[in-house]
Amino acid sequence: MTSKPSQPKNAAAGAAVPNAPALWQQLDAVAKALHGILGGQSSKAVLAQVPQRLRPGVQALLFQVLRNLGRAQALQRQLVSRAPAPKVSALLSTALALAWDEAQAPYPPFTLVNQAVEAAKNGAARAQSGFINACLRRFLRERDALVSATDNDPVAVWNHPAWWIARLKKDHPQDWQAILAANNAQPPMTLRVNAQKSTAARYQDALQAMNLKATAVAECGLQLERAVPVQELPHFEEGWASVQDAAAQAAAPLLLAGLSQPQGRPLRVLDACAAPGGKTAHLLEHAAPGSIEVTALEIDPERARRIDETLSRLGLKAKVLVADASAPKDWFESQCAAQPFDAILLDAPCTASGIVRRQPDVRWLRRESDVAQLAGIQSRLLDTLWPLLQPGGRMVYCTCSVFKAEGDAQIQAFLARNTTAASLPAAGHLIPGKAAKHDSVSDNPLGDHDGFFYALLEKLR
Ligand SMILES: C[S@@+](CC[C@H](N)C(=O)[O-])C[C@H]1O[C@@H](n2cnc3c(N)ncnc32)[C@H](O)[C@@H]1O
């Protein structure tokens, strides 16, 4: 067994953890995690099984593997004539994904190969360690030729499933390459400053005093130059700021901008799919204290608890209900006295195809049939919640998806079958990564943001 290897050459890969365990142990854990993901588990679930001391390094390496998995699998197909056992395949893919491009590799490729062989000898693939060694040595010898032989395979080039690439080409003929490139990049850490406690400018100064540089994005957001643990943020526990992508920060201002508080009562707002409560909190931070009351629905009781935690840290209050938004008979009369809402935020469950850069496993977990299935759920939620809106009231429909079936096409179909709905200006499909100015969303550019879709609908009187 070799001892601990030298420090990673690419610290951005995150493996430079003080007293880091041997690299082969990390590669072994990454391969096991990848095996779990290819078996249908989420990266969150597989990482939860990794021992705490290995987790930060393993997560960074796993995310890099997931961003290079199409290339690794194409290389593997050239190196082996018959598909190896899934555990062997996962270890080979791990090594190839990390080592195929020397410029991005977190360690020198020969170190990665040595340590992957060490992982094979010490782990579940012991019987095949000679085979793994032979494959990876050949890869080192013939790397350039093997890599260029995969350059015509779009899955290898873009590291997304073929159906996903084809759908993006159809949905976004101008932007599909920019979307795929953004999906493979590291996202920035972006904060939303709690307007009830501070301002973006004051919080920026507080960050600066701690040597943390940030630029203003969206209405009250700050994009950090480097990511830090939240515990290091000034007054985080006292609720001065939250972590939230700039695109997600567009929801609350879009919904509330054109509405005023009715005479003698607060504005009644429904956040229909609310956990973990990021947008619920933003609605409450954005409005003048006491001017709105928010009912936050969440179908999953565990996730609903996270709304309570979010609001309690930020010093905010909403009526949080564990309920199915698509079954108002269970809650609208009993919990809301059947009083229609002035505003509804429908941040609907979706494929999450816009936040792939933050969740690089999503592209490998989704099936193409999921898009139509989720679009069906979204359309039912739209139809069920629309009657609960006052005439003159407004609804924001949004998803963190770039697929048109969950965005533009969904809303066009809703408008075509619903004569009481009018569409007002909104951002539409936001392309991930692009620094763009969206006048209908905010005065500041959104900076480097996730992919999202926004529609604003008004109910005709
Ligand atoms: C996109 S997430 C919401 C994110 C949230 N708005 C935020 O900004 O923090 C969608 C949420 O809707 C919940 N959900 C899915 N179907 C639902 C339903 N029928 N009724 C209520 N909540 C639902 C999911 O459990 C998930 O927590």
From TrEMBL:
This is 16S rRNA (cytosine(967)-C(5))-methyltransferase. InterPro entries: MeTrfase_RsmB-F_NOP2_cat, MeTrfase_RsmB-F_NOP2_dom, NusB-like_sf, NusB_RsmB_TIM44, RCMT, rRNA_ssu_MeTfrase_B, RsmB-like_ferredoxin, RsmB/NOL1/NOP2-like_CS. One of its GO terms (molecular function) is methyltransferase activity. One of its GO terms (biological process) is methylation. Residues 179-460 form the SAM-dependent MTase RsmB/NOP-type domain. SUPFAM superfamilies: NusB-like, S-adenosyl-L-methionine-dependent methyltransferases. The keyword Metal-binding does not apply. It is found in: Cytoplasm. The keyword rRNA processing applies. The gene is rsmB_2. It is an enzyme of class 2 (transferase). Its EC number is 2.1.1.176. It catalyses: cytidine(967) in 16S rRNA + S-adenosyl-L-methionine = 5-methylcytidine(967) in 16S rRNA + S-adenosyl-L-homocysteine + H(+). The lineage of its organism: Bacteria, Pseudomonadati, Pseudomonadota, Betaproteobacteria, Burkholderiales.
